Amino acid sequence: MRRITGRASLRVLTRVGVAVAAVSLAAACTSNTPENEGNDSENNGQANAASSNDDPGETVVIGFSGPEADHGWLAAINSAAEAEAEKYSDIDLRVAEGTNDPSQQISHIETFINEGVDAIVLLPTDGAALTEIATEAMEAGIPVVNVDREFSSEFAARTTILGDNYGMGVSAGTYACGLIEENNLGSDAVVAEIAGIDSLPLTQDRSQGFKDALAACGADVDHRVAAEFTVESGEAVASNLLQAVREIDIIWNHDDDQGIGVKAAFDNANRDEFFFIGGAGSANAMRWIQEGEMEATILYPPTQAADGIRLARLLAQDKGMSDLVQVEVPRRIVLNAPVVNADNVEEYLPLGFES
Known about the structure:
Blueprint: H1 19-23, E1 60-65, H2 72-86, E2 91-95, H3 102-115, E3 119-122, H4 127-139, E4 144-147, E5 159-162, H5 165-182, E6 191-195, H6 201-215, E7 223-226, H7 231-244, E8 250-253, H8 256-269, E9 275-280, H9 283-290, E10 296-299, H10 304-316, E11 332-334, E12 339-341, H11 345-348
Parallel strand pairs: 1-2, 1-3, 3-4, 4-5, 5-11, 6-7, 6-8, 8-9, 9-10
Antiparallel strand pairs: 10-12
Helix pairs in contact: 2-10, 3-4, 5-6, 7-8
Main location: other
Region (Disordered): 31-59
Family: Belongs to the bacterial solute-binding protein 2 family.
């Protein structure tokens, strides 16, 4: 895969490197009471918790419902949430079976309400379809943490944690502009985009961010195709793109899971004249970066539900956050969308999910 000369480094995008702070926002929490001092003996010589909120408190029951793990990123969302709960002895996590059926997920939330859980973390199959039942939970006094796919009412969640889809496009487009500048590609640079499912707002947001960022350096998306977030569709549309366009300078693929098929199409066509940028931050994409087979990927954090578990624990225990002057848990958190390239891939590899 073509490599950059005079690499567009992290200066290209000031966002890069902030994700760790954003992802760990919930982790750096503290209770509203002073921390105990001089208790090293009570900890048997071990280091104190990062904050008093990390110390065990009253046990809280958290219900978690996510979609079926039929995609590498979704599988990582679910597993990260469960792994995060296991870190806390004061969390009793009840996990509903993953599903892509909104009616079944509604049934799961009804069960959580009937059981009287202390908080619910919910990545809805369909935000609009789950809004009513989430509102019922809130009205029952159960704080709901909405993850990734937003409800259609502000009353349906106490806190919403989102990835930044528009920001992904901005990061990809800004990085592409850096490549154009550093490699003297000029205004004639041929830029292609392999999107996900076009009907989804997240795809539309990613494409709009990419277009807007490219405009800053006078570039355009010359060729755009859309896949379906699957390996098979990625390979098919990438093959068609390569057959239609004889030479490309930069390709941005929205999703690293479908990127397996996209990469296969590149290899089958023996095409490597372009800079290949991915999206989401899979482990295999990061390994391709290490091997020089891919230029970069744009992170869409698979930690969103794990962060949701942490925030749900704080909400259920009536705790707040010390990283803000206003110490209550925020109503809305948008995680960063940094560029991962050869300069920082070692830092982000632990966050990579297996496709």
